[in-house]
Design brief:
The structure is a single chain. The protein has 612 residues and is an alpha/beta fold. It is 42% helix and 22% strand. β6, α5 and β7 form a beta-alpha-beta unit.
Length: 612
């Protein structure tokens, strides 16, 4: 026996313009369902949720709900009221006579979401407002709970708590989220909005890729069969004599209709499977192997009447091509680490060294590089003109916008008119036109739809520079990075080879270095903990080597400076080609030697620091 039906929509049409958002829309929501609602930005996810709540009227069709059914909705935007505390906000939709039934849940949920229920809503940050909205939705415990990006601005501990809470939730759940792992863990059904149609899978999001690819491949086969049929009709029409054409006017009209509809459907299918392509960066292989070094770095701040440690005697080197994922609670030091790397902050003690030629592309989660008064076109081409430089090639702005799933007709739209996900896409388009040798992405997945997230993962898989990603999206970290820095608070940072799953295994005590990672570890002079032999102090030989390395480094730097000065002479090659080539060779050898000295120096200093 199927669970009770709570809500049903049949033959619905929603129209905002000449082209309907939905036509012949039909779906059912049953008690106990756990539904993932997925689809590209603009596919109609918000509209469908408003249909469920009853806020959106149907132009045609029927909407039915069971008498007495309650519906709760965690929205993206929350506007705080003056004088309202977090506690008052959480209870604002609950009737006075029902408050006693819900009050016990407030402390449990607020503590898990790191909320102080006594503070005023007007002083909360955007992330705290989102958590307050989530707390209210959970405390209300409606029969149908709609969640729009519930994991945004939550740390991983809070996300895992939320998963556990929702698994035991008694009501029905429908959720929009870019967090694949979250959806895979909490859903048992999928609503997929695809080009105006609602496709329903009876299995959870864990199986979505397999199911959706099967549907797209089936559609691909159908389009090929239709194309072959249309070609046969076109061939028949081109061979026909006038008399036969007159007798078959209707068949000719049908052929043209088939051909036109095929073009429309093929175009829609191509858009559904669209991928963003990124050309490989040039000259990355010529940059130095070690791009940044932290040596015995201390950093702390005053806060809440006490000293908060962020970095404590922290040493680390970042090599060319490293792919580092950063995670941790708010306030644990993730942003401070990035600002030290970007030279926006100085350490209290210790040294942060970056290569002079190192350039950063920085994706800021606050989107501070976007001017809301600029158009999309001006954002990508600040100096004007219709063309921008993309990987040393001239591209028309409209064509490049199309690559990132924007309608070229929107080129003159203001940034302020974009949704959160569209702003993120525009930021990515701006940064990835010419990414530098080090790419830093701070929470890049917030507000992105699944298709854009897939494209971003594809872009990053092709990127050959040094990648640093701050994210709470577990699947995204697993797909894009090979080393995790877990900021655990009070200056403690846990570094783990692999992705998020490996980090969790290590935390649980079952981490094993995979065979494929062994060569990577050796290449980067990284020794897993289980392979390290306990030492009380450096050997005499190592101590002597360490004391001599600064002099060798200074000598190599002096040689490089002298040789570089000689090669800067514009007439050198014309005057003495052989000597020019010999000097170039000597410079390369000196640079390799300097890199070897510096790598060894840092390695010995790290060993020494750990033994004291």
């Amino acid at each position: 026996m199927s669970p009770p039906l709570l809500l049903s929509v049949k033959d619905a049409m929603i129209r905002y313009s000449d082209i309907p958002v939905f036509e012949n829309l039909a779906f059912n929501i049953h008690a106990g369902s756990r539904i993932a609602l997925v689809g590209k930005n603009g596919a109609g996810k918000s509209t469908l949720m408003n249909i469920i709540t009853g806020a959106q009227d149907l132009d045609e069709g029927e909407r039915w709900e069971e008498i007495g059914v309650t519906i709760g909705y965690l929205r993206q935007d929350i506007i705080p009221e003056k004088g309202q505390s977090v506690f008052d906000y959480i209870f604002s939709e609950i009737k006075d006579e029902e408050r006693e039934l819900h009050i016990y849940k407030v402390d449990i949920i607020a503590e898990a979401l790191h909320l102080d229920t006594k503070v005023q809503m007007t002083i909360l940050s955007g992330g705290q407002l989102r958590r307050a909205g989530l707390a209210r939705a959970l405390v209300e415990e409606p029969d149908i709970l709609l969640l729009d990006e519930p994991t945004n601005h939550l740390d991983l501990e809070a996300i895992e708590w939320l998963e556990g809470y929702l698994k035991s939730y008694r009501g029905t759940l429908l959720c929009v989220s870019h967090d694949r792992t979250f959806l895979a863990n909490v859903t048992t059904q999928v609503f997929w909005l695809d080009r105006g149609r609602l496709r329903v899978s009876p299995r959870g999001f864990k199986y979505f890729d397999e199911w959706s690819n099967m549907l797209l491949e089936q559609e691909d086969r159908e389009l090929k069969n239709r194309k072959q049929a249309v070609m046969q009709e076109v061939e028949w029409a081109s061979r026909g004599v006038k008399a036969r054409r007159k007798r078959n006017v209707r068949r000719l009209e049908q052929m043209r209709e088939m051909r036109d509809q095929l073009k429309v459907d093929e175009s829609a299918h191509r858009r559904a499977r669209a991928k963003i392509e990124l050309q490989p960066l040039k000259n990355i292989e010529n940059s130095s192997k070690i791009v940044a070094e932290f040596y015995n770095v201390y950093k702390s701040f005053e806060g809440e009447g006490k000293r908060i440690n962020i970095l404590n005697k922290f040493s680390m080197r970042i090599a060319r091509g490293d792919r580092i994922g950063i995670l941790g609670k708010n306030g644990s030091g993730k942003t401070t680490f990035l600002k030290l790397l970007l030279k926006e902050l100085e350490p209290d003690k210790g040294r942060v060294k970056t290569r002079k030629e190192l350039e950063f592309s920085y994706f800021d989660q606050k989107r501070s590089d976007l001017d809301p008064t600029d158009t999309l076109k001006k954002t990508l081409s600040p100096t004007g003109g219709d063309y921008i430089d993309v990987m040393d090639k001239q591209r028309h702005v409209c064509g490049y916008l199309k690559d990132f799933l924007f309608d070229p007709a929107r080129a003159q739209d203001k940034v302020s008119q974009l949704s959160g996900g569209e702003k993120n896409r525009l930021m990515l388009a701006k940064i990835l036109a010419n990414p530098k040798t080090c790419l830093i992405l701070d929470e890049p997945t917030n507000d992105l739809d699944m298709d854009t997230l897939d494209m971003l993962e594809e872009i990053l898989s092709q990127y050959k520079g040094t990648l640093i990603v701050v994210s709470h999206d577990r699947d995204f970290l697993d797909q894009t990075v090979t080393r995790i820095m877990g900021f655990e608070g009070d200056g403690k940072i846990d570094i783990c080879i692999g992705g998020y799953s490996d980090y969790i295994e290590k935390k649980r005590g079952s981490f094993q270095v995979k065979p494929k990672q062994q060569s990577k570890l050796k290449a980067n002079n990284i020794i897993p903990k289980e392979e390290k032999k306990p030492l009380k102090k450096l050997t005499y030989k190592s101590e002597r080597e360490l004391s001599q390395l600064p002099k060798k480094i200074a000598g190599a730097e002096a040689i490089i400076a002298t040789l570089s000065q000689r090669l800067s002479d514009g007439d050198f090659y014309q005057r003495d080609p052989d000597s020019f080539h010999e000097t170039s060779k000597d410079l390369t050898e000196a640079q390799v030697k300097l890199e070897r000295y510096e790598t060894r120096w840092l390695e010995l200093e790290e060993m020494k620091a750990k033994l004291h």
